[in-house]
Design a protein that fits this description.
- By secondary structure, the protein is mainly alpha-helical.
- It contains six helices and no strands.
- Helix 1 runs antiparallel to helix 2, helix 1 packs antiparallel against helix 3 and helix 3 packs antiparallel against helix 4.
- The longest helix is centred in the C-terminal third of the chain and has 42 residues.
- The chain is flat and about 60 Å long.
- The relative contact order is 0.06.
- The model has no long low-confidence stretch (mean pLDDT about 80).
Length: about 170
Amino acid sequence: MKVKLNSNLGRTTWHEYIVRFAFGGMVTALAGVIAKQYGPEIGGLFLAFPAIFPAAATLIQKQEKREKEDVGQSGIMRGREAAGADATGAAMGSLGLLAFAVIIWRWIPNYPPLIVFCIATVAWFLVAFLVWKARDSVGRRLRRLLRSRQKSARIPVHGQNTKMERR
């Protein structure tokens, strides 16, 4: 799937913004309740949950499906692919966020906060980028492997009973 950098802000309806805002607010409020009950360390874990992601993934899927249906095609698979790509990006970004959090947690007591923040930000970017590159590389290799297996499955191997040999 190719990623395009076009904006769909103009196509987003007002009720989609309300859904995103309400869901994000509910998750944030829930994180506050958890933090009050179990402490800020535990509450922070829930606050790190991408509050808007579930609503955004659903809306992306619906929007992509709608766009395909507007031109007379079934948009079910396209919607699922777009939501899947968004989920993959969120997971990769979350790994970068984990690196950021660990650096802040371990270094902030001993080093100047501004320097720690800058280092943690660079670490977040590097981890997210390297995970993306690794996924891209592994994905390419898997696609090549699957294509080569499909091609070899079409070519009869000596000794197999093909339709021609049975006649």
